[in-house]
Description:
alpha+beta; five-stranded mixed barrel
Amino acid sequence: MGCGSCGTGKPGGCKSNGGCSSGGCNRMNVHDWLANLPFSDPESSCRIVEISFNNGSRKDYYRNNSLQYYEKGEMVAVEGVSGFDVGMVNVTGELVRLQLKKNNINEATAEFKKILRRATESDMNKMAETKTREKDVMIRSRAIARQLNLQMKIAEVELQADGRKGTFFYIADDRVDFRELIKVYASDFKVKVEMRQIGARQEAGKVGGIGSCGRELCCSSWLTDFKSVNTNAARYQNLSINQTKLSGQCGRLKCCLNYELDTYLDALQDFPNDADMIEVMKGRAFLIKKDIFKNLMWYSMPDSTKHYPLTIERVRKIKALNREGIKPEELEIAEVVSSKPKEIEPEFVDVVGQISLRSLERNSKRRRDREKGQQQNRSNEGRGPQNRQGGGNAPQRGGDGRGPQNRPGGGQQQNRSGDGRGQQNRPGGEGQPQQQRSGGGQQRQQGGGGNAPQRGEGRPQQNNRQGGGQQRQQGGGGGQQRHPQSRQGGGNNPRQQGGGQPQQPKPGGGEPS
């Protein structure tokens, strides 16, 4: 345990800089719940004070013969062996009187050492100097015990504040003859030696630690009276006999096994004691455990691995019938009702198509659009121009060696001639490339050697539209020329090709308009 602030001393903290106002410096801390209560006769208050040493590792009672009042957490100098010792005030007032009564100590007749004074600065410096030697003394004392082949373990060494006495706490299973050891200790450490034997539980309390419950060890925080613990305490509480789980940090059975033992013993008085075995028509049933919370007794059959719960009344009836030599047909298993709410397992539903993730949909749509655009670009680069039906406009390309395509029926027709290009003429023509479209359509003609508009070549074209028609003219000789032409009333206007001379052959020998 440790506190975060001190009542006196600078800087704040428990590093032996003064008295602790909260009492958290001590491992065996006690709260004085009678400290603030007024008393009618202050003169009759208890003059005995409980002093703790070595951060609560050891406590003792001292008499306050002076008229000074000591508060909890103050450091005082007390009478020691051929000198003085320094400790912390732990409990004062009427609570000490209750502690003395609990420990069967008579306040009037018992002999108590005296409190000398409040600890001075020289006393605190002397104690701090002495405490720095304790670790080296303990290491050296263990080595000496091994050299003398003594079956003992030095658990802790406590030196008096003035350094004139040393108390050695040791653990041993058997009796140890340490007469020679005391002589060696006295000559090496120059102190008066006192040997005290402690048990494993006291050692764990001095060392401290965290238990399996997650709290500080009981023996290092509040427990001072250690009672014997055996495995019967675990059997009464229906605990499995597992040494690993039942043992504490000290290696012995946990002291907390005795905490609820009386409650279990009181509850087990309502259960029959002679019901370890009952007989039915199927065979014998043997007692497995007793449930004091639901008042049930669990039995098992030799030919089955199941456990059968029976009520106390049913067990007594079966036992009474067995005494008369009657074996009942069935055990009449009791219904076990759980107080815990039953957990409903979630049902798995097919939610394919019901869950919409907008971010994924947006990413998928972008990917589809990107793939579609790439596919269109590849198809446009690998295919020639096509004229589709429906009166649309399609550009013409020349000089690539590609054959023109003419589609009938009101669409666009393309004729390409010259430079090894194929020609397609409608019936009635004289070998002249032409395109005709009726009913407000479009006609295109290209002369020999002319270049159709291509990607990255030629100049922009100029179109002059009148009356909803469209007319284009391209001259030969490698150049491109466009002449605005007019369309009237939805008639057909041919294109002129070859040196600027108009040629408009029509099917059936018609004349140009």
